[in-house]
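Input sequence (266 aa), recorded before submission:
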Amino acid sequence: MSSVAARPGFAWPRLGVRLAPWLSVFAIVVIWAVTTATGSVPAQFLPSPAQVVGSAAELAEAGTLWSSLGVTVARGLIGAAIGIAAGILLGVLAGFSRWAEFVFDKPVQILRAVPFTAKLPLLILWVGIGEETKVLLVILATAIPVYFNTFGGIRNVDRRLVEAGKVYGLTAYQLATRVLLRGALPSVFIGIRYALGITWAVLVLAESLNATTGIGFLLTNARQYGQSEIVILCVVLYAVLGLVTDALVALLERRIFRWRQAHSGS
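Predicted structure, token format:
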């Protein structure tokens, strides 16, 4: 009986550890609410949290919020899925083969050096101003960091592991998947998390161009009409999408590397 009663007490430290990272966010919201309530900042520049929540409720009731959110999530996830898959594939090829590195590495380096604001006009000229351009921009944005993290992770795998795999008669495919890619997985996950974070930042730019739906469309319209509470709402939605996708990848990473005892800070 005593052991059962003691269990809830042991849950509190774990709950505190999980909630601790959110204390700074909670403090920001409190400061935001106090600042707007006291009138220190004009409402047209920074609406109160209550105004933002009220605008969200109105848009949700009208159905605009859910349709816009669904379109943005679809664009982001489709583009990110293709970009991450392409980045991993190119990273594995370039990491495994010197010849593939000669073929792929410099073009990817060039793409990385070109800013998104310069890529967008080129995509418009080549593809048009439709939905394909928005998804392609996300693909480019996500493929590049995943490629570099996969390539770097593979090249940092201990050469002795590769030599041992060859001794045991592993084929080139088996070496790539069982030794190199598996050894590079921690670096690959870092690239995926970074890529998913940048997905929503790129969509802000993509959805501000000739879009009729999406969070970026709401943001552009709200900015034009001076609806600061909707602007803040859209920024919050992009932030929430980034946090949710990052948390899902982090959860998957923890499950895959459950055996690993990594340093978690002091």
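Checked by second reader. The first helix runs from residue 2 to 19.
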